[in-house]
Model the fold of this input.
Amino acid sequence: MKASPGPAVSVIIPLYNECENLEDLHRELTSALEPMGRPYEIILVDDGSTDGTLDRLLALESRDPRVRVLRLRRNFGQTAAFSAGFDHARGDVVVTSDGDLQNDPADIPRLVAKLEEGYDMVCGWRRERKDPLSKRLPSFFANRLISRATGVRLHDYGCSLKAMRAEVVKNLRLYGEMHRFIPAVASWMGVTLAEVPVHHRPRMRGRSKYGLGRTVRVLLDLFTVKFLLAYGTRPAHFFGLVGLGLGGAGFAILLYLSYVKLFEDTAIGGRPLLLLGALLFLTGLIFVSVGLMAEVLVRIYHESQGKPIYVVKEIRPAAAEPDREPALPHR
Ligand code: UDP
Ligand code: MG
Done:
């Protein structure tokens, strides 16, 4: 591992109204991290709590110099809280976990050890999940769906307990409820993934922040992730294909109707097929136009921000800073 002035391990924990869990959380984290014998920081992200979480966080922070408190201005959601943590983490290894003690901090050393076998990301797998059926059932289907759709094969996408290399995490941009798609989003960078079974516990104190509504949001996020992974740099291929299919079918129908009208001299004005043909043709046209528009957007996104459409792992012989993003060619 490369030497770094910062701590070797940054643990990031999002907290929204978890005041009753904080003491135990800190104690369990400390007894898991201290024996690892390396520098660490615990980044506790207060996601706009209203139950006194912040006061207890500040008390922890004044007691333990390894605790950093990141206070968000309001409740932005778990994904945003993780993102904030990523941006401010100083370690070479970043560990994420829930703060309600459902994840067991004692698993952290095993995850980190696995990471250092040469993986970029190690995901926890709650093999025996201690949640009510109303949570496990949608998760069961969601996990299979995400696995199929993204091609990133994991058993448990919802597990927050993960260990990742900082250089991977720092390049992640997350939106919506996408923390569960971190492995999928990162797969675009060509990361190597491992999965480790972890201990899971029922929530003893505080209440769950999610209900069934999450299932729908996860599904919608899956569409986004899938689309961006497959067509993020070539949207016209997606919209164009759909557009050509629909528009082609519409065109064929209209051609047929024209033939009927012109050569068989039959009225077509009242035929439902006419409506269908016209609609398909128009829809196809719109799809193709949206595809072209999206191509312009992709160029604006990548070129205005100097974001390449690839990620370099290494350049040989090593340049000064091989992990910097390459400059755009001069125009
Ligand atoms: N959380 C958060 N912001 C939110 C919702 C949740 O930071 O808007 C945190 C919460 O405090 C906990 C973690 O995310 O540490 C997981 O939340 P929860 O336990 O409610 O999810 P569940 O285990 O029920 O899926
Ligand atoms: Mg929980």
Observations:
- The pocket of magnesium ion (ligand 2) is lined by residues 98, 100, 102, 203, 208 (CB under 6 Å).
- Residues 236 and 292 are 6 Å apart (CA to CA).
- The radius of gyration is 25 Å.
- Strands lie at 9-15, 40-46, 67-71, 93-96, 121-126, 162-165, 193-198.
